[in-house]
Amino acid sequence: MKKNILFVIPSLSAGGAERSLINLITQIDFNQYNVDLFLFSHKGIFMDLVPENVQVLPLSESYYRFIKPLLPSVSQFLVRRNAKLAYSRFMFSYKSRMSKSVSINEQEGWKYIARSIDLVEKKYDVAIGFLEKTSIYFCAEKVNAAKKIGWVHNDYDKLGMNPYFDQGYFAKMDHIVTVSEECGHILKQRFPDQHSKIEVIHNIVSPKIINQLADLVEKDVYDRKSDELVILSIGRLHAQKGFELSIKACRILLDKGYKFQWNIIGEGEEREKLSALITSEGLDNNIKLLGLKVNPYPYIKQADIYVQTSWFEGKAIAIDEAKILNKPIVITNFSTAKDQIKDGVEGLIVDLDVDAIAVGISKLIEDQETRTRMTKYLSSLHLGTEDEIHKLYKILE
Q1: Alpha-carbon distance 270 to 312, whole Å?
Q2: Residue 153 in contact with residue 133, Cβ under 8 Å?
Q3: pLDDT per residue over 303-329, tens digit each?
Q4: Which of the four, 45, 177, 324, 352, has the lowest number of CB atoms within 10 Å?
Q5: pLDDT tens across 237-295, in order?
Q6: Where do the structural domains in the chain lie, given as residue ranges?
Q7: CATH code of the domain occupying 207-379
Q8: Which residues contact residue 211 at a Cβ distance below 8 angstroms, ignoring those fewer than 6 apart?
Q9: What is the CATH superfamily name and number for domain 3-204+387-396?
Q10: Rounded to 10 degrees, what is the CA torsion of 40, 44, 48, 52?
């Protein structure tokens, strides 16, 4: 008999965890598993990539009212004589304004928003909260499942969260999965009493699929001059990704006379801030915010260097994808950097500093022989992680 599995994630908008989930569920054996998906938002560029076999669960009317702007939300609850939800919506907004931490807001806001969310009627064999915070809390409190799994996609200690809040929710999980050995080590240090539950399943990436998608665009996706290189970065426009470092490093490189264009694929709350910084640095003709791309692979394939200037990461799926497409890489020395690339072999790991980033990129711009050597080495590797699905199957049993 097939097992019933539920995945929970806030949305399928831009993000590595979202891309990772799509990769995972497209690999699942639907002859063995019925798969449902719960999303807090049914919008996002990856929605069209959800397999037909996967059922997306509906959202309740009370939740739709809750996520409206404050005044309409409270008014609608009061009209329906639901003072408790009106109060919860007010407190949700009030608490959000009181704290400067987005992560703490999401943690503490859960008890208010949870009151607007119905229990899932269907009983599952396994429920998986596929992203830290709300997805795990929902899995713990709103789902009836024989087994529950929480998934952490980042260096927990860099997320700015309250571990005491998560302790009770992690205790309700049968397994806690994370995406790299270093992330696993960090979790075991932070939650020693959950040590035996913590397991590593790497993001699933398929070279076959990535190469097929990379070839979908026949002409160059970049309008570049013959004498310039193309640098590419991918990520949410969020403080974690350190794009302000990229912009300032770009200025240094241009001042030294290097000819290149730098493109960034992604969207997020920092677009306005980053656009203003690009303009103030006089880089409007050199660094472009390309927005979201459902298929980023032609852009990776036709770039010369991939750069990731994050302050912290769990396991950045875009770096794995750049490796599959044989791109020399420059990444900052975040805590899990050595889990991502071999320094000096697949790319360069540089200090979390604007000058160090500029120096690392300049080395690859100047030294075509090193870029060729890295490309050749990457092309010799078997980089697919499709077999990671068997680790998941094991804990689903």
Answers
A1: 17
A2: no
A3: 999 999 999 898 888 999 999 999 999
A4: 352
A5: 989 999 999 999 999 999 999 999 999 999 988 999 999 999 999 999 999 999 989 88
A6: 3-204+387-396, 207-379
A7: 3.40.50.2000
A8: 297, 324, 325
A9: Glycogen Phosphorylase B; (3.40.50.2000)
A10: -10
